[in-house]
Amino acid sequence: MLRRTLNLGILAHVDAGKTTLTERLLYEAGVISELGSVDAGTTQTDSLVLERQRGITIKAAVVSFPIGDVTVNLIDTPGHPDFIAEVERVLSVLDGAVLVISAVEGVQPQTHLLMRAVKRLHIPTLIFVNKIDRAGAGYDRLLQAISQRLAPAAVAMGTVDGLGTRAVRLTPWADDTTFRTRLTEQLAEQDDSILAAYVEDDKIPYRRLREELATQTRKGLVHPVFFGSAITGAGMEALMAGLVELLPTATGDGDGPVSASVFKVERSQGGDKIAYARLFSGSIQVRDRLRFRRAGQDRDQEARVTAISVFDAGAAVRRDWVAARQIGKLWGLGDIQIGDWIGDVPTPALSHQFRPPTLESVVVPRSPHDGAPLRVALGQLAEQDPLINVRQDDRRHELSVSLYGEIQKEVIQATLANDYGIEVTFRETTPICIERPVGTGEAVEILHAESNPFLATVGLRIEPGPDGSGIELRLEVDHRSVPMYVYKRLEDFADAMEQYVRQTLQEGLFGWQVSDCIVTMTESNYSSPDGPPTTRGPLSTAADFRRLTPLVVMQALKRAGTVVCEPTVRVSLEIPTELVAAAMPALARLGAAIEPPWLQGKLSTIKAVLPAARADQLQRQLPGLTGGEGVLESSFAGYQPVSGDQPSRRRTMPNPLNFNEYMMYLNRRVLPSLTASREEA
Ligand SMILES: Nc1nc2c(ncn2[C@@H]2O[C@H](COP(=O)(O)OP(=O)(O)OP(=O)(O)O)[C@@H](O)[C@H]2O)c(=O)[nH]1
Ligand SMILES: [Mg+2]
Questions:
Q1: Rounded CA gap, 548 and 659, in Å?
Q2: In 474-541, which ranges are continuous DSSP H helix?
Q3: DSSP code per residue over 565-591
Q4: Could you give the CA distance from residue 104 to residue 127 in angstroms, rounded to a whole number?
Q5: Nearest Cα to 253, choosing from 344, 181, 185, 177?
Q6: Rounded to whole angstroms, how far apart are CA atoms 506 and 528?
Q7: Hey, which of 148, 220, 486, 681 has its CA 20 to 30 A from 326?
């Protein structure tokens, strides 16, 4: 019989026990004969030196093990918010997920974030409450928190004896009255036949209830909750049975066109690039020539696969091919980077689930001779994590990277030292602001007008959009004003215009990314030898629109005006009640907007929103402020206008508002490709 495949993600807040659970599952499945431990740095999935030293997961890692006729490809992900980008890329390749929650710490900020993401993406998810052996572990408390704050349709799958001790045991519910009633009530909410039977007091066969539980789990309508301990092994049997009973296995046509998502890129010790791809359709053989494409780019790249390995019962093993539903490691794809799609790209492409990095810092090599190697090394790190967004300032000869936080910065520093032999320091970490338009601005450049050196008419209006909405392009022009010999379909023109507009808005009036705006194309025209006399002339090309658009965008933006907004975080600070009075002014000094504190007995909670740039200061002050007992949790809370002076960021591209500089730049850098695109046209 053909084996089925379950591509399973393990997700959780930091330290909930994902890696320990992974190790335990490998052991229980018979793939490893000795249990490794995170604390000793001996697990299968925390295999990087840095992960072993720090005891935290930094990169997503794949292992596989069999349960019956199912091959589970398990992806262990990092929980620390600095590495959320790793999780995002994994989400696109999952058939199902296990969301791990610590029975002691309970539902934490990252737990919410992840639950929201799996719901949005319709990823069927089981909840695993881990660490039930630890003193302070809860059962009822956890179930209540889960159903009230995380997943209203949560169903406990067993009871626990000896909670909070090493001898803890889980007894899975079987066909008993309490469970049957609970299950029937929950399932009846979504299924009319069960509701009818329930109302009539008919006895529904237990098997039918379990089948319906699986159906509703696969639709994300219910969330079964398992309990256990990755350390003692309690609850593993029930969880493993639940994985294959309740989660869907992969589907996909092995004979269809190739479509695969690259969710991890690493380099071998010898420097070879290895891409991890989940195949949704088709199959890939060694020596196949593959096309692949990057989000936001309209051109494919090509390369030949030189070797393949596939995950099977533990390790990745060499194979000649990898097929739909599987995860393969591919060698030989020189220019590929994480997030690329091989073959057919699904529509619509997946959008971002989590916030972008909000901090940046200049990376300075200790030795002045390391400038060029540093650029190469950061380029390679960016293939594994494009969000570090390496920026080069040619005038100052500086390189900067985008960051989520201090831990990520330390990891980059250590990776450069260990893997590339380059010692670096970082300048001060500064926030990455955005610009939002404050009003509406319009601009137009007319074909053949003296101020317009290009063969096109472009008119644009820029106005504020809702917070968090990004950039939206609307067309108020029709195909008669668009050179259809270039774009074929009006949608292609809209896509191209959107790309030109987005590229320009990467650097606004103050040099920051412009966001949360609606850009409407109000006018368009082109020239051709046989058009009406007013527009007649040589043929307009795509290049005319591409080069004219930045001029119009920036004029419109200047008229709209922008305000610089900085990233903020919402913090929740748990501290001894007697220290609340002293902590409030300290928070206020950091520029925090503080909610009335929540005083509950000995421990109280203060919630506040403060600039992201101050969060580290708060973290450092925490031991002093809270007598060493404070617990700080923080999550991204959007952008707010900076108070005081508008900070600006050095541009990496010339400002089209400076006409001469822009034209010089085009003539210097774009002339060869302009000639090429005129030939294309
Ligand atoms: N008592 C107890 N400790 C556990 C259990 N599971 C994990 N731990 C401990 O919790 C700590 C964190 O475990 P990890 O497995 O690294 O947690 P993680 O979720 O992978 O952490 P990140 O990948 O860094 O987010 C380690 O010290 C583990 O030994 C458990 O079931 N019981
Ligand atoms: Mg881990």
A1: 11
A2: 484-487, 490-504
A3: EEEEEEEEEEEEGGGHHHHHHHHHHTT
A4: 15
A5: 344
A6: 32
A7: 220
Whole-number Å distance, alpha carbon 16 to ligand 1 midpoint, is 5
Interhelix angle 615-625/580-589, rounded to 10 degrees, is 160
Rounded to whole angstroms, how far apart are CA atoms 361 and 398? 10
Q: Which residues contact 349 (CB under 8 A, 6 or more apart)?
A: 295, 341
**Is-contact 236 242, C-beta < 8 A?**
no
> For the chain, what is the mean pLDDT?
91
Rounded Cα–Cα distance for residues 434 and 524 (Å): 29
> Which atom, in ligand 1's list, is nearest to the CA of 56?
24
Q: Phi and psi at residue 638, in whole multiples of 5°?
A: 85, -170
- Cα gap 482→514, rounded to integer Å: 26
Rounded CA gap, 595 and 570, in Å? 11
629-678 pLDDT per residue, tens:
777 777 888 999 998 899 999 898 899 999 999 999 988 765 444 444 44
d(CA 151, CA 101): 13
**How far is the centre of ligand 2, averaged over its atoms, from the C-alpha of 49 (Å)?**
13
Confidence band of 463 (pLDDT split at 50, 70, 90): very high
* H or E segment to which residue 419 belongs: helix 406-420
> pLDDT by residue (tens digit) across 439-459?
999 999 999 999 999 999 999
Which tens digit of pLDDT belongs to each residue from 584-609?
A: 998 999 989 999 888 878 888 899 99
Helix (H) or strand (E) holding 678: helix 671-680
Q: Which of 10, 13, 14, 19 to mutate to test the pocket of ligand 1 (most atoms within 8 A of CB)?
A: 19
- The DSSP call for residue 314 is B
What's the whole-model pTM score? 0.86
- Residue 653 contacts residue 504 (beta carbons within 8 Å): no
At position 297, the amino acid (one-letter code) is Q
Alpha-carbon span 334 to 438, nearest angstrom: 44
Ligand nearest to the CA of 230: 1
Enumerate the β-bridge partners of residue 574.
Answer: 605, 631
Tokens in use for 603? 């421990």
Locate tokens 């069999």: which residue?
A: 66
Structure tokens at 581: 């009075």
Ligand 1 neighbours, Cβ below 6 Å, are 12, 14-20, 38-39, 56-57, 78-80, 130-131, 133-134, 229-231
Q: How far is the CA of 103 from the centre of ligand 1 (A)?
A: 12
What percent of the chain has pLDDT above 70? Answer: 97
Continuous segment of H or E residues that includes residue 100: strand 96-102
**Tokens representing 251?**
């589907």
14 Cα to the center of ligand 1, angstroms: 9
- Alpha-helical regions (H) of 521-658: 542-560, 580-589, 615-625
Q: Best mutation site among 10, 11, 15 for ligand 1, i.e. most ligand atoms within 8 A of its Cβ?
A: 15
In angstroms, the CA 607 to CA 391 distance is 35
pLDDT-derived band at 331 (thresholds 50, 70, 90) equals: very high
506-561 pLDDT, tens digit each? 999 999 999 999 999 999 999 988 888 888 888 999 999 999 999 999 999 999 99
**Strand positions, DSSP E, 241-304:** 259-267, 273-281, 283-285, 289-293, 301-304
Burial of 93 (0-12, 13-18, 19+ CB in 10 A): buried
Task: Look up residue 653 and give its two tokens.
Answer: 């591209």
Distance 621 CA to ligand 2 centre (A): 27
User: Could you tell me the distance, in angstroms and rounded to a whole number, from the CA of residue 432 to the centre of ligand 1?
Assistant: 33
Which residues does 70 contact at the CB level (< 8 Å), separation at least 6?
Answer: 3, 4, 5, 6, 243, 244, 249
Nearest residue (CA) to ligand 1, atom 12: 15
